[in-house]
Every structure is written in structure tokens, then in C-alpha cells.
Design goal:
Growth Hormone, Chain: A; globular; disordered C terminus; 80% helix
Length: 405
């Protein structure tokens, strides 16, 4: 006869499967869209400057809309309803892209898409973290399925584009969002355990900006993360310019994303052995070398063969950056610190890099974009070196805030 413990264990396992599938399809949609959207832009003859302006839309919109979505979720306790809404509406907006071919209309659609898409990742993370906390699991065991979905989507969609054209991007995106909704319906929301979104980021910012190590890390992330995120948009154009195919772009992203998971585990070992600061410095240094190497127009074979550089640079940085923020800010301000970190690195830094990359592409060449990325990353190394060798010490307060994953 099945005991209550066995039933709880079976129920937890079932929820884990549904949450993993939710992440698989959310990131499958993002993997079909983000790395390959350049194929659509090229098909409607947008200029580099126009592409840069459109690509800068998401980080600008997210800075405003993510806190608003968070307040709606907290006030009305409707995380699941908000996630269903944003998944469905963003998928439907995606289907409209093949019907437009002018810069103005694409910009409007992309802005609308960003409003709803900006809620998908933080709200799904909130739901998953509530489940993880209740059952004492590792968030990484769920989140890794997002990396799998992203990698598979980039590869499969790249193959399909070569056969049926860029419209496949939006069909794949919509189908993935619908599939995610279907699995979301089987996921109960652990309301009591789910972490709250901050309702005001302004309250603790003044105190955080008095911390030299945190301020320097914000400056570093502005440059390092900005170029990393912008590469996701411009790599497709770059890879074809050095002789690659659309299918090759998909293969490259499959290998790139696939290398991040094992490197994240390796980053944990390096951080324990040599410390967070040196591990982050290594990741940023490898990024700088990577971008300068790309600007020299290597063969596509070499770019594919050295795919693991993505894992060493991006995987190491992603695995250690949030931990550095947690360890170098007071426990009472860590939610605000993480929000500020993402806004500066993923938001403002990405916006600057995309806008500048568009101008460079029109004025000079796609290869010059990667010289710019390398130079920007070098600027990011300066504050990281100051953190490592400067006189400022870490925050004394080491209170555990119960962060998972």
C-alpha cells in the first residue's frame, strides 16, 4: 500500500517533470527567435542602424515592465495567470512579424513583444523557485532544461529556415509558447513559498552605490554582459559573412549553449580553488580574446571547433556573477542588488552594444563589430582588476538569504 511519503515523492517528481518541460519549451521559443531573428531582418532589408535600434528595445522596455509585472504578481497572487497571458500574447505577436516589412512596424511589434516577453523568465523563475524551496531541490536541475531547449531550437530552426525561409522562426516561437502553456497548466503554484518581487528598486540603491566593490562590478558587467548579449543578435550575420550557412548558425548555437552547462560546474570548482574574483577575471579575459579573434575573420571550421570558448567565458561568468553580488552586498539589500545588476548588465549594457554595433555595421563592417565588442570587454576588465587587487574588502555580513540555484 502506498504511504503518504511515497505519494508526496511521486507528486514532487511529477511536478518536476512538468516544470522541466515548461522550461524546455519556453527556452525553445527563445532559442528559435533570438539567435536567428537576423535572418528575418535581412529578408526585409533593414539597415544595421535599424537593427541596432530594434535590438535595443527589449532591454529598455524590460527595465520598466519587469518591476510592473512583478508588482501585479505580488499584489494579486496570480503568477500562473500572468505567465499564461504573457506566453500566449507574446506567441501571437510573434505570428504577426511575417506580415510586416517596414522598420516602423517591426519596431512597434518588437516593442509590444518585449512588454509581454519581459515577464516570462522572471515569473517562471518565481514559480520554479517556490517549488524548489518547498521540496528542497536544486533550481539548476530545472533550469538546465532551458539550456537544452535553447540549443535544440537554434539548431533545428536553422535547418528549417534554409528550407522554408525566415517565417519558420515565428511559427516555431508560437508553437513553443503554446506547448509551454500546456505544461504550465499541470504545475501548481507554491504561493506561500514563492519569493516576492521587489516593489521598489529605489529604496536600497543609494546604500548599494556606496559599496566600492559592488559599484565596480556593475561597471564591469555593463561592458562584459553587454557584449555577450549583443553577440546573440549579431553572430548570425557575422557567421554568414565569414562563409557560414544558416544551418551552421544553428549548429554553432547548439554547441555554444551545450558547452555552458558543464563549464558552469567547472566554474564552481575554480571558484572554490582560486576564488570568485579570479574566476570572473578568467571568464571576462577569455571573452575579450574571443571577440578580437572573431574580428580577424577565422574560418567557420575554427569557430565551430573552438565552441567550448563560449562555455569558459559565458558559462563561467553566468555561474559566478550572481554569487559575487550575493557575497558583496548586505543580506537585506540583495534582492535590490540583483535587480540592479541585471538592469545594468543585461539592460543598459546590451542596449549600448546593440545601438553601437548597428552603427558600426553600416559605417564599417560586421567584423568591426567584434573589434568593438573586444574593446568594450577590455574596459570591463579594468574594474574587475580593481576589485581583485584594490584595497576594498568584501561586505562583512555573510547572512544566508536562502538563495537557490
Amino acid at each position: 500500500m502506498q504511504t503518504q511519503f511515497d505519494r508526496q515523492k511521486s507528486s514532487a517528481g511529477s511536478k518536476l517533470v512538468h516544470l522541466s518541460a515548461l522550461y524546455l519549451f519556453i527556452y525553445y521559443g527563445l532559442g528559435a527567435f533570438t539567435p536567428l531573428i537576423m535572418q528575418y531582418y535581412q529578408s526585409i532589408n533593414l539597415t544595421g542602424t535599424q537593427i541596432g535600434l530594434i535590438s535595443a528595445t527589449t532591454p529598455i522596455v524590460s527595465i520598466v515592465t519587469q518591476p510592473l509585472w512583478g508588482m501585479i504578481c505580488d499584489k494579486f497572487q496570480i503568477r500562473k495567470g500572468v505567465l499564461v497571458l504573457t506566453l500566449l500574447v507574446s506567441g501571437l505577436i510573434g505570428l504577426l512579424f511575417p506580415a510586416v516589412s517596414t522598420f516602423a512596424l517591426v519596431l512597434i511589434l518588437y516593442t509590444l513583444l518585449s512588454v509581454f516577453q519581459s515577464a516570462v523568465v522572471p515569473v517562471s523563475d518565481s514559480i520554479a523557485l517556490g517549488y524548489v524551496k518547498k521540496y528542497q531541490l536544486q533550481f539548476g536541475d530545472i533550469r538546465m532544461w532551458g539550456a537544452v531547449g535553447f540549443a535544440l531550437a537554434a539548431f533545428v530552426t536553422g535547418l528549417l529556415i534554409e528550407r522554408w525561409g525566415p517565417s519558420v522562426i515565428f511559427i516555431s516561437y508560437f508553437a513553443a509558447m503554446v506547448a509551454a502553456i500546456l505544461f504550465l497548466q499541470r504545475v501548481p503554484v507554491e504561493t506561500a513559498a514563492a519569493p516576492k518581487f521587489t516593489t521598489s528598486m529605489l529604496a536600497g540603491i543609494k546604500d548599494l552605490l556606496k559599496l566600492p566593490r559592488f559599484l565596480l562590478f556593475l561597471a564591469a558587467s555593463f561592458f562584459v554582459f553587454g557584449s555577450i548579449n549583443a553577440n546573440n543578435i549579431w553572430f548570425s550575420l557575422y557567421y554568414q559573412e565569414i562563409g557560414g550557412t544558416v544551418a551552421g548558425v544553428g549548429l554553432a548555437f547548439l554547441l555554444f549553449a551545450g558547452s555552458e552547462a558543464p563549464c558552469m560546474k567547472l566554474a564552481g570548482y575554480c571558484a572554490r580553488r582560486w576564488g570568485l574574483e579570479l574566476t570572473i577575471l578568467l571568464a571576462a579575459s577569455v571573452s575579450a580574446v574571443r571577440w578580437f579573434w572573431y574580428s580577424s575573420a577565422p574560418s567557420t571550421t575554427a569557430v565551430i571547433a573552438l565552441f567550448f570558448i563560449q562555455g569558459i567565458s559565458v558559462g563561467f561568468y553566468l555561474a559566478t556573477a550572481a554569487q559575487f553580488v550575493r557575497e558583496n552586498t548586505p543580506a537585506a539589500l540583495q534582492v535590490t542588488a540583483l535587480a540592479l545588476f541585471f538592469s545594468v548588465g543585461h539592460g543598459l549594457g546590451t542596449m549600448l552594444c546593440n545601438l553601437t554595433a548597428g552603427w558600426i555595421q553600416d559605417t564599417y563592417s560586421t567584423l568591426s563589430i567584434y573589434s568593438f565588442f573586444g574593446s568594450v570587454t577590455i574596459l570591463g576588465l579594468i574594474p574587475l582588476l580593481l576589485i581583485r587587487f584594490g584595497p576594498w574588502k568584501a561586505v562583512e555580513e555573510k547572512e544566508d538569504v536562502g538563495a537557490t540555484g
